[in-house]
């Protein structure tokens, strides 16, 4: 998910596109200039992912132990107890409880390292599905995370992350099961001005000063924003018939409907009022485990009928 070009009157919206083709992914896409429209998130009566959900991670390419730790700590923080200072990543995630069907609890499951780039450094959506299917487990979301030197179809051009669903054959091969998957790429080298905003100056539009990333890694802190976007979209619209606004081929989902909003007072090109660490100058709006801080995007709250921010 990422930074986009904004003008004072028009908003360039980055959003998740969920294709009706079960072999293709939903992606946070960069569209043409469109005027802001009132948000009306509609429930399309489909299944949502609820209960205990395992997040299996497929690390594709080279990630340092420190980078992996940031992302794992973020995922673990989504279920932190009340001991975590407010505002917390867990309180952000609890907004998904307001969607029909109850709460979801996510835990980190299997982690697979593919440091030798088994499919090369230029991937298509079919490659992402292949990688995700290797970690398939019931009631899980298999997340492919690509390193900063990996190009993915549409990455930087029209998407920073994606989610979708597909079926894989099990057992004798006569049956198949549906599973949800997601992908997020590290944009540090390829397009930080698109997919790591607001931690990098935007590629287009007014060159506003970037915020200081809370974990000292622009690419990975950008991935946190995009990972939160695709995970929220996955649990609230896993099979293309959950919660979304707009056409089924290009829906706005729980977080992508609130693109560019991180704090109160946000407007196109400005992330809004966020917290600043006095010692490091880093910007954040959520506390996590192990003293971590994160900048998380606003999420549409069905009960309040608005994009909810933590600060």
UniProtKB/TrEMBL annotation:
<comment type="similarity">
    <text>Belongs to the EXORDIUM family.</text>
</comment>
<dbReference type="Pfam" id="PF04674">
    <property type="entry name" value="Phi_1"/>
</dbReference>
<keyword id="KW-0732">Signal</keyword>
<feature type="signal peptide">
    <location>
        <begin position="1"/>
        <end position="25"/>
    </location>
</feature>
<keyword id="KW-0964">Secreted</keyword>
<keyword id="KW-0052">Apoplast</keyword>
<protein>
    <submittedName>
        <fullName>Uncharacterized protein</fullName>
    </submittedName>
</protein>
<dbReference type="GO" id="GO:0048046">
    <property type="term" value="C:apoplast"/>
</dbReference>
<dbReference type="InterPro" id="IPR006766">
    <property type="entry name" value="EXORDIUM-like"/>
</dbReference>
């Amino acid at each position: 998910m990422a930074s986009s070009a904004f003008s004072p009157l028009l908003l360039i919206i980055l959003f998740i596109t969920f294709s009706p083709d079960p072999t293709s992914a939903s992606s946070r896409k960069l569209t043409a200039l469109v005027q802001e429209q009132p948000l009306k998130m509609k429930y399309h009566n489909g299944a949502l992912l609820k209960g205990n959900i395992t997040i299996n991670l497929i690390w594709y390419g080279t990630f340092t132990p420190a980078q992996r730790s940031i992302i794992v700590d973020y995922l673990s923080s989504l279920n932190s107890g009340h001991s975590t200072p407010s505002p917390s990543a867990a309180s952000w995630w609890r907004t998904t409880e307001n969607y029909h069907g109850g709460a979801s609890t996510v835990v980190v499951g299997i982690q697979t390292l593919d440091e030798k780039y088994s499919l090369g450094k230029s991937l298509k959506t079919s490659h992402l599905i292949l990688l995700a299917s290797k970690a398939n487990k019931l009631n899980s979301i298999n997340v492919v995370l690509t390193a900063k030197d990996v190009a993915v179809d549409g990455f930087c051009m029209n998407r920073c992350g994606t989610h979708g669903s597909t079926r894989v054959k099990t057992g004798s091969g006569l049956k198949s099961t549906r599973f949800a998957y997601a992908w997020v790429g590290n944009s540090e080298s390829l397009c930080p001005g698109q997919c790591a905003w607001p931690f990098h100056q935007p590629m287009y539009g007014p060159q506003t000063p970037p915020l200081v990333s809370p974990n000292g890694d622009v690419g990975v802190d950008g991935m946190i924003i995009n990972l939160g976007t695709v995970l929220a979209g996955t649990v609230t619209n896993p099979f293309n018939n959950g919660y979304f606004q707009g056409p089924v081929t290009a829906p706005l989902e729980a977080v992508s409907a609130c693109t560019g909003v991180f704090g109160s007072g946000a407007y196109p090109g400005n992330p809004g009022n966020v917290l600043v660490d006095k010692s490091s100058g880093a910007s954040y709006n959520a506390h996590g485990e192990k003293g971590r801080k994160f900048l998380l995007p606003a999420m549409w709250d069905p009960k309040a009928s608005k994009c909810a921010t933590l600060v």
